[in-house]
Design goal:
Elements lengths: L13 H19 L4 E4 L4 H14 L4 E5 L7 H14 L2 E4 L3 H10 L4 H26 L1
Parallel strand pairs: 1-2, 2-3
Helix pairs in contact: 1-2, 4-5
């Protein structure tokens, strides 16, 4: 039996992978009839990568990056997100989700600290998706 930690990762051709992902984004937009994208941009590596791939697929003029901090979000995250926006040259909006989230969090009770963290994370994620859906309709 082999140890999964010692397994060698497969080699990935980065440019080929990027081409496949960009092609997929374009085909999905063509299939659905959309010409622009809205992405949530937290300032982290994952959302920055998505923003770069989206901008390459459709052009920065067709991309809206929405930054959605919560009161406990790091200011550095928004600074990093703005760096991505500047580098891409895409449009961006900042939507503070604290006033939307606080009433729901006030209703969450009990379950211990770990359960509360999970439930809080779920509320934040769902609110961010609501904002993204709203911005995509505009």
């Amino acid at each position: 039996m082999s140890d999964a930690r010692s397994a060698t990762l497969p080699a990935i051709e980065a440019e080929q992978a990027i081409g496949v992902i960009i092609g997929f984004i374009r085909s999905q937009l063509e299939q659905t009839g959309f010409g622009r994208l809205v992405v949530g941009l937290s300032g982290g590596v994952d959302s920055a990568t998505v923003a770069y791939l989206a901008a390459r697929a459709i052009g920065p003029d067709n991309l809206l990056a929405v930054r959605m901090p919560y009161r406990t979000s790091s200011p550095d995250a928004d600074t990093d997100a703005l760096r991505v926006v500047t580098a891409l040259g895409c449009r961006s909006e900042r939507v503070e989700i604290t006033p939307m989230v606080e009433p729901m969090l006030a209703l969450i009770d009990g379950g211990g600290a770990a359960a509360l963290r999970v439930r809080r994370g779920n509320v934040l994620a769902r609110q961010r998706m609501i904002v993204l859906y709203d911005r995509s309709a505009g």
